[in-house]
Design goal:
Layout (H helix, E strand, L loop, with lengths): L15 H27 L6 H5 L4 H16 L9 H40 L2 H8 L18 H17 L4 H21 L6 H4 L5 H14 L6 H18 L9 H17 L8 H12 L1 H21 L5 H46 L6
Length: 370
């Protein structure tokens, strides 16, 4: 969610199709959450409400994209001794600042509106501390979710990054095979045995979605390309599968099959196509939203309640008007957050790390005096 399709080193070209998919994933989650806010606003579901539940599959699409991008953007790191440190620093710089900032806003909201006792009654100090460390820790009611509820997905992301940081010490194919075996074993153990937290969280079959993205990246690197007819067939099957799954919610035990595999099919169709898609102006706009997708993802839960309360005060009751206003407001907030916070902070930290890394390299290998 926090990584674009172009690596910092510029070793691989940006894949516009991935950027567009990131925008689609973020907007899907936003639309899904507007449906929840609509229920709060009027007590009535938007018809057809089940269809909009599919928007939650944007998370699964993000996970597949993340697995793809980690392999795609790390091509120059495989087999290097310093690869784990370089990789983790890149991920921390991209994920931590914005997540910590939005988490602090959520905590401040709780304190201001409900007080410390209510906050700690639901989110004990251990849960709050764990949220900043991306450690899955149950809150008071036993649900493993941080104060910024979307942080549960980042807990999976950081777990994947931690494993990938070790795998990257090996060659690309060795890392792929070992990583796939590792996560498949985790998923099997988690499905068969009842495990305590945090293992029940980490061993969820949803982690295989990262592997699906990795495998697509390996295929791309090996030059695998699909004919247009097969690409369209993949997309059609994926859309039909997602539409059918709308009536299965909740289906947590089947999430990998009903949302993960269709998401992987869509990613594979977009990046492995023999013919690059010409997106035009709309595609360039979506690619820009893809750059903003992490900001949009984390900031929109802070925006939607504001829109809901504003429309309640105005007496608005149109479901689709609310959805339109809420999505536009969330999108604008995501763009502003990206331009004013995420992008400048990320660039600043990347520059500092790059300068420190260069200085350390010069100290280890001083240039000969002339």
């Amino acid at each position: 969610m926090a990584e674009s399709a172009a690596p910092p080193t510029g070793a691989s070209p940006t894949l516009n199709s991935i950027q567009v998919l990131r925008a689609v994933a973020a907007l899907s989650v936003v639309v899904h959450h507007t449906m929840i806010e609509k229920l709060i606003l009027t007590g009535e579901a938007v018809t057809p409400y089940n269809f909009f539940k599919i928007g939650a599959a944007g998370v699964d699409l993000f996970f597949v994209i993340s697995g793809f991008v980690m392999v795609y953007s790390s091509e120059g790191l495989f087999g290097r001794r310093d690869a784990p440190l370089v990789f983790i620093l890149r991920r921390v710089v991209r994920i931590v600042p914005l997540y910590w900032a939005t988490t602090l806003i959520v905590l401040g909201y709780f304190l201001f509106n409900h007080g410390r006792d209510v906050l700690f009654a639901l989110y004990p100090p251990g849960n709050i501390l764990a949220s900043f460390l991306f450690y899955p820790y149950p809150r008071a009611d036993g649900v493993v979710v941080p104060p910024h509820t979307l942080g549960w997905t980042l807990n999976y992301e950081m777990f994947f990054y931690a494993v990938f940081a070790v795998l990257i010490l090996f060659s690309r194919w060795s890392a792929g095979l070992a990583g796939s075996l590792f996560f498949f074993c985790f998923a099997i153990v988690g499905s068969v045995f009842s495990l305590p937290p945090p293992f029940a969280f980490w061993f969820n079959p949803i982690v295989i979605e990262f592997c699906l993205g990795m495998l697509i990246a390996f295929a791309w690197r090996e030059g695998v390309r699909l004919p247009p007819s097969f690409v369209w067939a993949l997309v059609l099957v994926a859309i039909v599968a997602l539409a059918i799954s709308a009536n299965w919610y909740p289906f947590e035990n089947w999430r990998l099959l009903s949302w993960g595999l269709p998401s992987a099919a869509i990613v594979a169709a977009c990046v492995l196509s023999r013919e690059s898609a010409e997106f035009g102006g709309a595609g360039r706009f979506l690619a820009f939203l893809g750059d903003c997708s992490y900001s949009l993802y984390l900031i929109h839960p802070l925006v939607l309640p504001v829109i809901r309360r504003a429309m309640q005060s105005l007496g608005a009751s149109s479901a689709f008007a609310y959805v339109a206003v809420a999505v536009l407001a969330a999108g604008l907030a995501g763009v502003v957050c990206y331009l004013l916070f995420e992008r400048p902070v990320t660039r600043l930290l990347q520059d500092r790390i790059r300068n420190r890394w260069s200085t350390a390299a010069d100290l280890r290998h001083p240039k000969p005096a002339r």
